[in-house]
Amino acid sequence: MIDTEEKNDFSKKLVDFWRKFNNLPFLFVGSGISQRYISSENWEGLLKLFVEEMAKHPYGYYSSKADKNLPKIASLISVDYHEFWFEKNHKIASIYEKDMLDISSPLKIAISEYLKEREIKNEPESLKNELLAFSKANFDGIITTNYDLLLEHIFPNYKVYIGQENLLFSETHKIGEIYKIHGCCSKPNSLVLCENDYQNFNEKSQYLAAKLMTIFVEHPVIFMGYSINDTNIQNIISSIVKCLSNQNIDSLKNRLIFVKRDKNYEGNLIFDSIYQVNEKITLPIKIIRTNDFKLIYDSLTKINRKIPAHILRMLKDQFYSYALSTDPNISKKINVGIEFDQIHDKSDIEFYAGIGIVEGMGKYGYLPLKRQDLFEDILFNTYNYEPENVLKYTIPQVSKLTKNIPIFKYLKISNRISGNILDTSKLEDSVINIATTVNFQYFRSQQFSKKFGKLEKKSSIKELIDSNDNDYHTIHLIPFLDANNIDLDELKKYLIEKYSDLEDDNSKISKYNSQYFKLICFYDWLKYTNGKQLIMDTNAN
User: Fold this and answer.
1) Same domain assignment for residues 180 and 231
2) How far is residue 390's CA from residue 396's CA, in Å, rounded to a whole number?
3) Are strands 282-290 and 269-276 parallel, antiparallel or unpaired?
């Protein structure tokens, strides 16, 4: 058993190592991470699942026919699965009719649907703590070949780029971003799975390498969930090295860190090793050998930055857009006012750009109001905001970043709601759009619809809370309750209790995420519309 002192010593070594670099690390995340946290299969394991579903040939039939070449095995399976898909009149075939681009589409869709259902393990407790530490770790971005949605769940505020094409032709900022270079289950046909997919991927590898090159030269890159001998990693590193001069190749030394998970090893080590790029080039690298990933995440938490990665990315994005814009309608005035310690997600940012005197700030500061101010007003009635000013100035500005805004209180007390009719006179389009699109379905997470169906139907919020000790699940499940059985006082009480938790422990923000704030919007909608979807008053001017 490893004692606390030894763990602390190892953690200090890691922190000291990260601090040698000018920039924070990038993570390169492989299937081992998904296996660890959501019990997802590796590439070959996924293929075996769908071979078993077809029950036509054993997996060995495809493996031997393809000489154990995985892309070729996937191609062979996709041919038989295409036939199986349509012969069995697959239950979701009609939903994806427009996505049938080629013979591999049914297999990619089936794999994607399977991965969408994978959820983070509830046990053991050590994994929960590990994931919480992961969500708080400081690094600049993530590159992954995984198809599943685990990383988006842990880092919901990161900008996601899906597939090689999306990454190549987008203006990225290399901070607060996730690059899913082999595609994502949210877009089934983006998966790099079969032989022709890999052929297309490899043909463009030099362009991808050029895109990733500065990351490898300027950041330490931590490989997690990969074997050091992984073919994909070898090909990517080889492609990047081909783009570099000898001087820049030297700059890669000790920037590549491979995490080796060893279940049978109780110690923790960081040591030097050699990576053979090709016959001529070898690179000094670091190996971290451990079975306790929390130590790694905790060490990354200790290399603090004053501004969260996703906030920096959005600031860079807005400054970049402003600098390049030729639109004469864009304001020439810049003012920046952000309370970084108050930022929990991107919708908490109010960003203004310009040089000179700030106009219009006499309107009770309605432009600089944050979404957080509106949430507090809904729960605590602490502010006496003039509702028309909130609707005119605050909501249109905040809605540029999110539609999850409490809006109905201000519509109601400004006498714009009568029954289910909305008076739209002099309202911005963005306000009207939010007000008329919100309904029960809007608040119900598709991810939890099956989970709610499996539960015994609860008649009240209290019963749901009492029967479920997982706040993350409770927050998602409340909107599925029957509207007639939702006691608004109970809901408000629960929201206030959870708000206090967030104030006391900011680490819980990542656990509840945006769904908690969306639940405040749900309360706002129910209270001030009685659960009715609003329609526009056709007589309004």
Assistant:
1) yes
2) 9
3) antiparallel
Structural domain including 379 reads: 364-541
CA distance 189 to 401: 28
Residue 118 scores a pLDDT above 90: no
What average pLDDT score do residues 130-139 get? 92
The half-sphere exposure of 340 on its side-chain side, counting CA atoms within 13 A, is 11
Asked if 464 and 443 sit in the same domain, the reply is yes
Residue 277 lies in a domain: yes
Helix 105-116 vs helix 43-54: crossing angle, to nearest 10: 110
* Model-wide pTM > 0.70: no
Mean pLDDT of 523-527: 94
Angstrom distance (rounded) from CA 109 to CA 21: 42
Q: Decide if pLDDT at 337 tops 50.
A: no
Pairing outcome for strands 417-418 and 421-422: antiparallel
Q: Measured between alpha carbons, how far is 252 from 395 in angstroms, rounded to an integer?
A: 47
34 and 98 belong to one structural domain: no
- Residue 391 domain-assigned (yes or no): yes
Question: Per DSSP, which regions of 77-235 are E strands?
Answer: 141-144, 159-162, 177-180, 221-224
pLDDT digits (tens, 9 = 90+) for 412-446: 999 999 999 999 998 999 999 999 999 988 888 77
The one-letter amino acid at 60: G
Instruction: Please give the angle made by the CA atoms of 537, 540 and 541, to the nearest 5 degrees.
Output: 150
Give the SS3 label for residue 258: strand
Looking at the structure, do residues 96 and 125 belong to the same domain, yes or no? no
Torsion angles phi and psi, residue 162, rounded to 5? -105, 120
Number of domains in the chain: 3
Q: Which of 73-82, 343-352, 379-388 is the most confident on average? A: 73-82
Regarding beta strands 159-162 and 177-180, do their DSSP bridges make them parallel or antiparallel, or are they unpaired?
A: parallel
8 A C-beta contact, residue 112 and residue 282: no
Return the residue matching tokens 């006391």: 504
Task: Quickly list DSSP for 445-486.
Answer: -HHHHHHHHHSPPPSSHHHHHHT---HHHHHHHGGGS-GGG-
**CA–CA gap between residue 243 and residue 246 (Å, rounded):** 10
Asked if residue 357 belongs to a domain, the reply is no
User: What is the per-residue pLDDT across 359-404, written as a single tens digit (0 to 9) for each?
Assistant: 443 344 566 677 888 988 898 886 778 899 899 888 988 888 788 8
Give the containing element (helix H, strand E) for 422.
Answer: strand 421-422
Sheet containing 535-536, strands listed edge to edge, beginning at the edge strand earlier in sequence: 417-418, 421-422, 535-536
DSSP state of 392: I
pLDDT value at position 67? Answer: 95
Last residue of a domain, one of 87, 116, 145: 116
